[in-house]
TrEMBL record:
Gene3D superfamilies: MFS general substrate transporter like domains. The chain crosses the membrane at residues 20-43, 63-80, 87-106, 176-195, 243-263, 283-304, 316-334, 340-361, 373-395, 415-435. GO terms for cellular component: membrane. PANTHER family: HEXURONATE TRANSPORTER (PTHR11662:SF285), SOLUTE CARRIER FAMILY 17 (PTHR11662). Pfam families: MFS_1. It is found in: Membrane. Residues 22-439 form the Major facilitator superfamily (MFS) profile domain. GO terms for molecular function: hexuronate transmembrane transporter activity. PROSITE patterns: MFS. It is a multi-pass membrane protein. This is MFS transporter.
Amino acid sequence: MIQTPPAATATATSIGKYRWTICSLVFFATTVNYLDRAVISLLKPYLETEFHWNAGDYANIEIAFKLAYSLGMLGVGRIIDKLGTKMGYALSTFLWSLAAIGHALVSSTLGFSVARAFLGVTEAGNFPAAIKTTAEWFPQKERALATGIFNSGSNVGAIIAPLTVPWIAETWGWKWAFIITGALGFVWLVLWFMLYEVPARHAKLTKAEFEYIHSDVDDLAAASIETQPKVSWFKLLTFRQTWGFVLGKFLTDPVWWFYLFWLPDFLTKQYGLKGTDIALPVAMVYMLSSVGSIGGGWIPLNFIKHGMPAFKARKTSMLLIALCVFPIVFAQQLGQINMWLAVLVIGIAAAAHQAWSANIFTTVSDMFPKRAVASVTGIGGMAGGMGGILLSALVQKRMFVYYESIGQLDKAYFIMFWICGGAYLLAWVLMHFLAPTMKQIQLDDVPPAAAPTR
């Protein structure tokens, strides 16, 4: 039963206090999520020495993570839709924190593949839960900004990692890097249970803020989301909009995986950086990414404020963002002049990816009812993971091993940068073809819910 909050006037404090607190919690979770997955790329030199890895071994471990992440995405959205955001998000974070700490117990290459697979399947819950939380707590016009803010946590996690992980490894050993970073998830769990509840059951949420959150057309009817039946994958896959999101994620997610898992290796192999020397350039890339993530949410919001329809604002922003990625194809040429020019252009491309991510996630909550958001996000996340697996198996694993064996690894990176530069433009074209205009999905399996009484 929906509780009625105490009456309140629509002040600046009441309109926004709780939803931005929720956004901060999701930001924290996303930071921990990416910190945990980024640790291994920074420990690669230590692990290569101890376990005698080559590029193929590392690619196999990376593939194990991506495969498990993809399979996890296939089901985790359904689980979160069933359990609700509070319990679904908590369960996912608890399990991935255990998985992250578990890396410290591994003593073989096969063991790392198993540990990465467990981490992948459990970390898959973060984004479906985060997008569902955003859809529940923010009106449509603010969702891209809220998504950009929490999604910047992925960059903050990737910034914290190079600034801390090499130092921890040098000081206490690589195992403690996994233990310390993994334990942060339990800190988040305490805060989550203390502060989170869905708007309809939040005891301290004011009437003014509740009505603002549900100010979109027909959104009050969706406030009773938790009582409505869930939507089957088969039904969701009959919509062109689902396939637009799926293809967009399939083509662009692998680029981010490439930055996350191979950027330290690129800087090490191309410029001879070692140990803590790699911290600042890697952190710089992700600092720029944080700007892109928040800026990616601000761009469509600014268009909307100037009268552009929300969906057109989203699509226009994504085209501009896709164009910003393309200069990465010149990263190596610029790097021959100065390493920091390569770092800058890679950072701009990474920032553009995060801006793209903030908007592509929001297209789901634009086009689908809230009760289907986590499921659609999960399907798209699975597609992104499968794209990453294919890139690793068919391009990175074979290509990197081959060019490394003949002493021409720079050619492998040259090809990869061209793939990165073109992926977003292709994705935008396909998404525009499949969903050229805004069309809100109508699920006819249940009648519209009555607006809740406040």
